[in-house]
């Protein structure tokens, strides 16, 4: 099903509309949750609503004419007749405040609209077209920035003459460059995104690309910026009115009322306090609500409450485990879940805890920053991982020691939107990775390979979460781990190589800087950083991964795809992890580069006795590197076995189909005949 859209003049797939609707729903839901959790935000929202309603409906709500002079009523204090008292002309202050609100808020909204329109027009043009357009517009902004804004606004307002309109124009004329500069940088950050380039290559005109793709992507931040800056504009307009540059007396306006009340601050403080507190409350409310909106649009800032939630869960689960007697009481008192897990591994032998519904889901994902962290984190500081910790407790313990990573009954599902049902992604996954072993993970697209990899790295991100099952990393039960425990393990114990190297590489840092950062992240705390030693280590690593020394000072965009993938491999092994998860590391490469990268991975794995999970669609690739293969389909592990038996005697029909699907290298008969 398709729907037309007036913006693109094209057609949008029904599923895309649904996705857009679901994004809107998610935003509304997050906003609702943010408001529900924050009584102050609700209180300020209520205040703002009252101020707006009173300002708009001043003529209906107030029983007094805000302009009518009655000297007999002058400077009356607040009373039942005049709730906020009267001013020196005997005018009702509340009535003037309400009518003044219409002027102040109206002028602020119009000024913001003017500023945003100008800022958008100029910021979009400068950011999208670049070149001389950008240069001219940026220089113009620089010139305007070189004047003190308030002084320039006062000078402009004086030139234009008193009145609310000239005030608005003056405020807008000095405020737009700051907005234009921010909008320009938003545009710069999205203009080279794939979807914008795709639209350009489809021949869509620039104004349409700007109107749909670019503006659509930056609408959220713009909305936040507007809300956050509304308070500033209200203040600027009030300040200039206070200086006598705004609305002409006797018309009311908050800033002008402040000015009028200034002379009576001792004998009639309500004249000053009423507009002052109203401005204060309105500005505070718009600023605070801008922050709330930002939290709803950028879910990462919601991590705080989630972390608290998880902490609660954690203490609950530890207690529950203690009560049920499944785990030793020592687990409760141990300094770290890592240590607990290792102790459990050492002591319990095959005593794996029963599956629990308390899954430890971590909040992060595929985004670049999180992936960078898979190669760098806080020093493990003597984490007693399984190596050597199991001691000599017979064959069973030795067997456990050899298993560096395992999943038991692992289930992952996508949390439902309100009212919907959970979508299972992984079901009852069981796998074991032995020391020094390479385990191939194959399956069609969407079978859940990457989700499993992210779960094994503790990198599942909402809406995905572990619902049951256990992951043991080097003997440690990770169910109780928090973000920080995972952070310590990632990079130093288990590392991740992504399909697209640019997912892991920061485009503005050199290769050397990025490798040094990973290395420094796991340096023992307090250990002195010897720059030349670190550099030497990084250079050696570059050499080991087949890269020339000059790559050290180069940026990712200066490298070929194969070189970038080598850098990512170097980042993954820089802290000598025992386990590597390589998620289709060669898919984006040509065949010969692919072969060289495979050779590099195999060599590094062999030389360092690392364990590796190699994820791929390609059975031929996995046959060359893996010792064992797990086949996944629809989120389930349907077959496991050593390479030979899986290739020669596949049990499952699906595995047989996969093997049959391997393309033949034979030259097709019609080409042979042509020869
Ligand atoms: N954030 C998410 N929210 C909801 N569903 C998701 C999310 N991420 C992945 N999925 C779903 O999980 C399933 C498995 O996806 P996953 O990326 O793990 O597959 P894959 O086997 O790695 O595929 P590919 O080889 O194409 O990368 C898919 O049906 C996908 O739609």
UniProtKB/TrEMBL annotation:
Residues 307-391 are annotated as: Disordered. The chain crosses the membrane at residues 40-62, 105-130, 150-176, 222-248, 268-290. InterPro entries: AAA+_ATPase, ABC_Ni/Peptide_Import, ABC_transport_permease, ABC_transporter-like_ATP-bd, ABC_transporter-like_CS, MetI-like, MetI-like_sf, OppC_N. SMART domains: AAA (SM00382). GO terms for molecular function: ATP binding; ATP hydrolysis activity. The keyword Acetylation does not apply. Belongs to the binding-protein-dependent transport system permease family. Belongs to the ABC transporter superfamily. This is Dipeptide/oligopeptide/nickel ABC transporter permease/ATP-binding protein. It comes from Paenibacillus thalictri.
